[in-house]
Automatic annotation (TrEMBL):
One of its GO terms (molecular function) is oxidoreductase activity. It holds the Pfam family EthD. The lineage of its organism: Eukaryota, Fungi, Dikarya, Ascomycota, Pezizomycotina. It comes from Imshaugia aleurites. It comes from the Eukaryota. Gene3D superfamilies: 3.30.70.100. InterPro entries: Dimeric_a/b-barrel, EthD_dom. Residues 27-107 form the EthD domain. This is EthD domain-containing protein. Belongs to the tpcK family.
Length: 107
């Protein structure tokens, strides 16, 4: 039948990697622009230079809050987090992500 709809095709669940997303908050007294500049430029450079990060992560990504977009979403009734960003980590396993935060060089 021409009117018959095909079932939706969803991407297969990846079994070769995992992702962990953490909400990130700036230090009290730091402006959003100061935080975004620090996190994007200094923190990311130091974090990605750590040996276990290079070894264990397939992807490290930052998502910075957009205040204008957040306000627009709030205005139409969406619940909006007060986080200043999200850090996204992708690795072959959660254990490999956890090992980063337990590593002496990270601490």
């Amino acid at each position: 039948m021409a009117d018959e709809q095909k079932p939706k095709q969803f991407p297969a669940v990846r079994k070769d990697r995992v992702r962990l997303t953490l909400l990130v908050y700036r230090k009290q007294g730091m402006s959003l622009s100061e935080f975004q500049q620090y996190w994007r430029e200094q923190h990311s450079e130091v974090f990605t230079s750590i040996a276990i990060v290079k070894k264990n992560l397939l992807l490290y990504e930052q998502a910075h809050v957009n205040e204008e977009a957040s306000e627009q979403l709030k205005h139409v009734g969406f619940p909006v987090s007060d986080a200043d960003g999200m850090a996204i980590f992708e690795a072959p396993s959660y254990a490999m992500i956890a090992a980063i935060f337990q590593d002496e060089e990270y601490k």
